[in-house]
Amino acid sequence: MNMTSTPSSTASTPALQLEGVRKVYEVGGEPAVALDHASLTVEQAETVALLGPSGSGKTTLCSIAGGLLSATDGKVLVAGEDITRYDPRRLSRFRQSTVGFVFQTVNLVPFLTARENLLVVDELGRRTGAAARRRADRLLEELGVGDRSKNLPSQLSGGQRQRVAIGRALMNEPQLVLFDEPTSALDTATGEQVMELIRSEMGSRGTAAVIVTHDDRITRFADRTVHIVDGALDA
Ligand SMILES: Nc1ncnc2c1ncn2[C@@H]1O[C@H](COP(=O)(O)OP(=O)(O)OP(=O)(O)O)[C@@H](O)[C@H]1O
Ligand SMILES: [Mg+2]
Questions:
Q1: Could you tell me the residue range of the domain that residue 136 belongs to?
Q2: Could you identify which of 52, 110, 149, 208 might form a hypothetical disulfide with 228, taking C-beta atoms 3.0 to 4.6 angstroms apart as the criterion?
Q3: Which phi and psi angles does 31 have, rounded to 5°?
Q4: Is the Cβ atom of 58 under 6 angstroms away from ligand 1?
Q5: Is the pLDDT score of 3 beyond 50?
Q6: Domain count of the chain?
Q7: pLDDT tens digit string along 27-85?
Q8: What pLDDT is recorded for position 46?
């Protein structure tokens, strides 16, 4: 059971609302603006591609949307929940219940099998025991790696590893999944397969997604493309 105080979202509550978000890092005592008054709304079940050159602020935006990083200014709402002023403890609880992450370098735990990598989420989150094991097995099956559940990451191909990472991101039934360049370490054909899979998995669950890329071939898998240049969005 979900014990967090997530407000009940209605059909019209967006999955993500960024309002005038600014992020200023400090480098050698100097401020470095990574995001400049970024505003973006992602509706429920919508897939948005975030396209921009290296250093434009894509990872920063995803990290803020997923509660891994705090904004310097502005407002961040995920599934109607205002996380802007959450302290690290509440942010951590929020991440367990509401968002999923898939990164470019698939950071699976190397000494755990594919199945155990999904169950690790469970130990941190809210699912327990047999139900979680059934969900992990079903997800791996759906993602086409059911027969690899006992493999360690080193015994999987790049595409299979990324499938396991997607399964892990979906374990907690998130409202929003943030993909940071999920296909850039894959060859073109495998990358397209993984994107097809992301689209169908998000579509069938009605889960919203932000997919970061600097590859404009990826954007056709999204409902909408938003461009980012020097920390500014065109949305
Ligand atoms: N922790 C940090 N401290 C200081 N500056 C940072 C930090 N993280 C990122 N930056 C700077 O903020 C800007 C945006 O970085 P970010 O990682 O969001 O870009 P990106 O669009 O994801 O780039 P890439 O496509 O190369 O992954 C860059 O100029 C970067 O140098
Ligand atoms: Mg990045």
A1: 44-70+83-233
A2: 52
A3: -70, 140
A4: yes
A5: no
A6: 1
A7: 889 999 999 999 999 999 999 999 999 999 999 999 999 999 999 999 999 999 999 99
A8: 95
Query: Does residue 107 belong to any structural domain of this protein?
Result: yes
Question: Is position 100 within any domain?
Answer: yes
Ramachandran angles phi, psi of 176, nearest 5°:
-145, 130
Q: What is the rounded CA–CA span in Å between residue 195 and residue 203?
A: 12
Confirm or reject: Cβ of 213 under 6 Å from ligand 1. no
Neighbours of 22 (CB within 10 A): 16
Give tens-digit pLDDT for 102-124: 987 768 888 899 998 888 876 55
Ligand 1 atom 26: the closest Cα is on which residue? 54
At 180, which CATH number?
Answer: 3.40.50.300
Query: 135 CA to middle of ligand 2, Å?
Result: 30
For ligand 1, is residue 56 a contact (CB within 6 Å)? yes
Cα separation, 74 vs 22, whole angstroms: 6
Choose the residue to mutate in 27, 35, 58 for probing ligand 1, maximizing ligand atoms within 8 Å of C-beta. 58
Amino acid 153: pLDDT = 94
Q: Is 70 exceeded by the pLDDT of residue 25?
A: yes
Q: State the pTM of this model.
A: 0.89
